[in-house]
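Note to self: the last two entries modelled the partners one at a time, which told us nothing about the interface. This time every component goes in together.
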Amino acid sequence: MIKAFWFLLFYVVAFVAQTVLAPMIEVFGISPDFILFFIVFVALRYGALVGVFWGFFAGFTEDIYSDIHWLGAAALTKTVVGFIVGQFEEKFMNLGLVTKVALLGVAFFLNDAVYGITTGMSRELVTKIFLTKSLPEGLYTLVLGAFAFHFLYPRLPRHVS
Amino acid sequence: MGSFFRLLSSLFSFGRGLFAFLLFFGLSYGILHSSLKEKMWVAEVAVSTFLYPAQLVVNQVTTWNRLETENKVLKSANARLRIDNDLLRQQFLRSDRMHEMDGIGLEFGDSAILAEVVAKNPGRMLVSLLISAGESQSLSRSMPVYTANGLVGKVSKVFKNHSVVQLLTDPQNKVSVLENRTRVSGILESSDSRVLYVDFPAHASIKVGDTLVTSGLGGVFPKGMRVGVIGRLLPSDIDVMKKVEVRPFQIPSEVEEVFVLKKEIDSVVREFSE
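The predicted structure of the combined assembly is written out below.
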């Protein structure tokens, strides 16, 4: 129960950061994705099970505020991201800072690609979104992610209980 | 009880989260392929139950954040408004005549209600807002949403006390607009949820700084609602069209309160779409 509370608190922080902080630090309309950040964080630190659950929860929350026809698309996308990133859980392998940041980048593009496929976007639109949004926002997130992985990540408890 | 939870835990942890993945993947897939009515039900239950506390927290943080700025702005606005008030008394008497002369006078026979923005979609694409008015305030789908600055979007989902507003920047949202000077119409849309574009016929003498209003052709928005100003002329993908970038009068990310115009879709358009 306490474990769930901690994750919920992490998630609320990410949610507030995404809705309040992200618009403030926007550069030329480009802002980082704190929620994806949160999923990658918990999946790497606590494993695929946690990554899958919070990926689904965060994606579903995103779905609620989006077009009703695609309800479930972001939930499905972030569930996939949480599961795949969770396979690299640090309990099973030792990851350096560069690998963690690279995994964040992979998760970012995987997220956009799976979402594009799920919602049946045309190839032209996916390419356009990739160039104008995914790429710059992915790089922005990676820069912030590198700092967070270096300073914040080691301070998180290895096992929340 | 303890052994039940241990069994559940080991089941979910099976195959490094494989069971949990298949379960949640299936659940998402099920929701995605359910009927529109079922999706509405799922969304309504989620908004009115577990998402409500999260909205309260976000609102509180946003409120604290903007109170100080608002206070300063309001003080200076108050002083300016006292002067404006006297001037407006005189202009008010002329406004009816001005609307008639304008030729695109707004025909807002219906009433408008004020609603507060309580949440913005947490994704990277700002395409929708959640407002504090719903079925209880007689709102229904496709009602126009606007501010004193200009058009914001339309109501896309209605819950009991909340509604989702689909913004102009949503790539799924297309609005028929009219250029105020040349009277040429085009379709306003966005492909990346940031920049708004309109394609006009190539022969139209559109210039930077021209103003766009709603054309009323879609049946959703009444004719003459302020939309934005032409910011840039762009090369079009097709020779017969002229593409322009539009700067909206109301920046979507800065909306705090909105008006919802209690207007149904025009009956002719509704019959046609049915």
